[in-house]
Amino acid sequence: MFRAVVAPPAYGCMAPDAAAGIDRRLCRLILASIGVDAIALIVWLALEAGILADATTLQERLAAIGPVLETTVFGHVVLLQLAGALAMALVPKRHLRLAAAIGAAATLLEVGHSHAIAMDCDPILLASDGLHLLCAGAWLGGLLPLLLLVRAAPPRAGALAARWFSPLGKLCLYGLVATAAWQGWELLGGVPGLLGTGYGWMALGKAALFAALFGFAWINRYRFAPALLGDESAAAKRVLVRSIAVQTGFGLVIVVAAGILSSLPPGLHTQPVWPFPVQPSLVTIREDADFRLEAIGAVLALGGAALILAIGIVIRRLRWPAVALAMLIAWFAAPHLDLLFVEAYPTSFYRSPTGFAATSIAQAPGSIRRTALPVTAPKAVATALRPRVCPCRRPI
User: Fold this and answer.
1) DSSP-assigned letter for residue 334
2) Of 8, 272, 279, 321, whose CB has the highest number of CB atoms within 10 Å?
3) Across-strand partners of 280?
């Protein structure tokens, strides 16, 4: 994609020999990437076949590869991916758009290994996963070619390449944010799944890495790349090359995080372990009007503090008084937000795997007859069936 969309405009302001040399390097990088892709797929196939066959020796692992390729969806997808890699390697160099299209199709095949396939092939989730892969491939996959071109090309050509890479990066960025939000909505299992499962923790780590990657992309496009056209172009080029190299490293770490994320069960399918001693709850303010007004006042006060802080940022002469006033308001308002929390335990958000609970006994669903509990019922069951008491921590 980089060679078909970004590189040609940069070649236009370079000497033909220099442009041809950089293009040869890009072609070698593409072939090396295809080779790494094929080797990784073969190794993955052998490891997965050994796991499925419960193989203990290398001979048993190799013997299981054939049945896995013939009888499993995983094997069929791997065969298609290997075919896509071979097709990309055989496409002539001048057919750039055809090679890019084959590369996009091979990238989309990775959806066959995703959680969306395991979840009854949800079409919306499949489409979201496919778009996420395409955006990640086009943006992250273009960082190393961009580094190669900027380092080898004259400063003016490097600035032009960065400028042409920016629209592609922005489009991919919007796609990544939208698809990640949808996948999180479908797979995380809400706030408990985000904060209380390994899948959620890895998703948070990936989001933090993505934020750092976006920061590098922004500073490269709007600060370092324009400096290539200034008087200190040589120094600006060195700075931009280092920045793109660090950004590429972050991109590689994100790919590793995505691989780990795809190997973990979604937070939706695991029991979250709540890590905090309290949990958000509106029970207290629902039960008492005075508490409700107190919490609303605290929220409004914090909003006013944020507004004062924003005014101080805009008007410099008011900056420090605004910061002091905002901190003072927040100091007095924050304690009242305790009304929005109740005591929590590690198992507060556990879900019953069978749906059996005290409420189901009280409602008598299915074949359970609606009868009163006997006098000899355990005290724990009787206590569970009592009306819930408002968990206020203050006397009413």
Assistant:
1) G
2) 272
3) 341
